[in-house]
Design a protein that fits this description.
The chain is mainly beta. Helices cover about 10% and strands about 35% of the residues.
């Protein structure tokens, strides 16, 4: 005969085990999305209406990072992945129970999307957990991208070749990304996988929802906790070549004196050149140039000082900080700076250099604006 006390104890243990399974942390949840191969042409229209999208696997388990860490997202998000011979397609369906309150103000490329509802994708194409490409958009279809290197160095000046289409309806909004494999860098290995994560931001709620890495101290750029794109299949990436041609023209009018006599002839000239980037290997890019345009070199802006106001010298320190030291105009010419003033400015900069302790061997360079 079974002891009722033991049966009740076993029931409690089973209930506790079920509770623990349901409360598993993010590391124990499904962390891979299978990339399906499209059987037909994918039209980039933001509607995900091709049959291939219906057959593709999906991600729906999004958790809040803000404001209630670890709780299920308040709005449903579905993410799917497809590929064809040349590009990776990511479809994001962002459901919203109050679609009229979706925020979308930005239209410009690389605009700050933090004031809008937005979706960001992270693709670690090397799967080294140290670098990644980030692609984002808002309900207006504004594009934003960046390159993440060395875990915490986000280069927002990077501009890749990719596209996105967005549509809106009464149930929410949809973003369809097309990212050519030519834009990504990866190694040609068997069983190719990409690191992957998705973040959705709901502006009116200040809510961040992530598929993976939703802990308070984690976030989208925590690559160690990212998921994976699997079953990508064999890919062929040609040696990419980017060409940047330029043409400069210069026209100088003839000069005349007050009487109308010509003092110098006019001049018309042109100059052309070409800059190129060649992907030698997945980790090596060659920068080539012909007819270099040296006019594009960054330099201090020259300002003519015709007043008694002091000019400024800017000292640049290697750690990224800078300071401005005032100079005393020359006694002989109020608008000029004497040689002694230049020396005093260099000495002040040198003293500032020795006072820096951030870098073991800092350097500085001073330029005078006059």
């Amino acid at each position: 005969m079974v002891d009722p006390g033991k049966s009740e104890s076993r029931l409690r243990i089973a209930s506790l085990g079920l509770t623990l399974v349901l409360a598993l942390p993010t590391s124990a949840r499904p962390q891979a999305l299978r990339v399906a191969t499209a059987s037909g042409k994918i039209h980039l229209n933001g509607r995900l209406d091709e049959p291939d999208w219906t057959r593709a696997d999906s991600l729906t388990d999004f958790r809040q990072r803000e404001p209630r860490v670890g709780e299920p997202a308040t709005e449903r998000t579905v993410v799917k992945a497809l590929r064809d011979a040349t590009a990776l397609y990511i479809g994001v369906r962002a459901y919203d129970g109050e679609s009229r309150r979706i925020r979308a103000t930005q239209l410009r490329r690389d605009a700050d999307l933090s004031s809008d509802d937005n979706v960001q994708l992270l693709i670690d194409s090397f799967r080294d957990r140290r670098s990644a490409f980030v692609f984002g958009t808002n309900p207006n279809g504004a594009r934003w991208d960046a390159q993440l290197t060395d875990l915490d160095n986000l280069n927002e000046n990077w501009n890749g070749i990719w596209d996105v289409a967005v549509s809106r309806d009464a149930a929410g909004w949809t973003a369809e990304f097309r990212i050519p494999f030519q834009t990504l860098r990866f190694r040609h290995t068997a069983g190719l996988q990409f690191g992957f994560n998705v973040r959705r931001f709901i502006r009116r709620k200040n809510e961040q929802d992530l598929w993976r890495s939703w802990g308070r101290a984690e976030g989208l750029y925590q690559l160690l906790k990212a998921g994976d794109l699997i079953d990508i299949g064999p890919l062929h990436r040609a040696h990419a070549v980017e060409l940047y041609p330029y043409v400069l023209s210069r026209v100088i009018e003839p000069t005349h004196d007050s009487g109308g006599a010509r003092l110098a002839d006019g001049f018309v000239g042109t100059k052309a050149g070409l800059d190129a980037k060649v992907a030698v290997s997945p980790t090596l890019t060659a920068d080539l140039t012909a007819g270099t345009d040296f006019a594009q070199v960054e330099a201090d802006e020259q300002v003519i000082n015709l007043t008694r106001r002091r000019v400024a010298r800017r000292c640049s320190i290697r750690d990224g900080s800078d300071w401005t030291a005032p100079a005393i105009p020359s006694r002989s010419s109020p608008g000029a700076v004497s040689t002694a003033d230049r020396a005093r400015g260099a000495s002040a900069c040198s003293m500032r250099k020795r006072a820096q302790t951030v870098q073991p061997m800092p350097w500085c360079g001073c330029s005078m604006i006059c």
